[in-house]
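Quick one, probably user error.
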């Protein structure tokens, strides 16, 4: 009986360990993803998931324009199809856009055929709306398996995760979001925020908008530079070559 109990405990522990790495935004166990530059850099990247979302993506763009900052928006394909004018406006304003799948499924449970369908539909929606093909991708909920990342790479996409989680989707105030960001930011960070919600269009993201304004004011005042993900990647290549 004891060996069976030990074996069961080991299997449970292995399952928990594997589950952690499927969802941990900074884990590289299942394949390399981009999570920033590491401490010491004076660059920061604001990233926003689950848009385009009317009217809060517009309001986020106003904040970014006021600060003269470019950010990165990971777009849900079905929302791009509903609000193509917002996707076009993001590109026209110089922000980077990426794929966040068509309908925001947890990809650790999705077969390869479903993932390919999600990627194809989102790519087409973004192309129809903006005339461009994005090169970056973020998995919904951060969920991925080795096969997920292989399929994404086969589509010519680079997976972008994050290393600062603000939990803005459940925060009760902008102050709470900012406090969480401040506890984690060290420089070279990719910061996760949301301008929308996978649940429906129009979800209130006013707290995220206000928090973004405060984060930008504080860290720009301290001499940090905010850049979009493609520029952060280019800077990384330049320093490593």
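Nope, works fine. Designed sequence:
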């Amino acid at each position: 009986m004891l060996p069976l109990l030990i074996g069961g405990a080991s299997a449970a522990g292995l399952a928990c360990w594997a589950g952690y790495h499927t969802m941990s935004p900074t884990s590289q166990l299942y394949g390399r993803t981009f999570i920033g530059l590491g401490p010491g850099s004076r660059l920061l990247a604001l990233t926003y998931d689950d848009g385009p979302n009317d009217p809060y993506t517009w309001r986020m763009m106003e904040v970014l324009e006021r600060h003269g900052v470019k950010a990165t928006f990971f777009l849900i394909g079905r929302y791009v199809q509903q609000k193509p004018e917002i996707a076009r406006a993001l590109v026209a304003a110089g922000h980077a856009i990426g794929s966040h799948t068509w309908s925001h499924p947890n990809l650790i449970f999705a077969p390869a055929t479903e993932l390919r369908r999600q990627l194809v539909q989102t790519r087409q929606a973004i192309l129809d709306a903006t005339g461009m093909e994005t090169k970056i991708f973020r998995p919904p909920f951060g969920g991925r398996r080795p096969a997920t990342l292989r399929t994404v790479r086969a589509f010519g996409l680079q997976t972008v995760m994050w290393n600062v989680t603000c939990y803005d989707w459940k925060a009760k105030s902008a102050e709470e979001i900012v406090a969480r960001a401040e506890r984690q930011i060290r420089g070279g960070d990719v910061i996760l925020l949301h301008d929308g919600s996978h649940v429906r269009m129009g979800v209130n993201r006013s707290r995220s908008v206000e928090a973004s304004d405060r984060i930008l004011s504080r860290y720009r005042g301290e001499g940090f530079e905010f850049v979009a993900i493609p520029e952060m990647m280019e800077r990384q290549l330049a320093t490593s070559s």
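Residues 9-15 have pLDDT under 50 and may be disordered.
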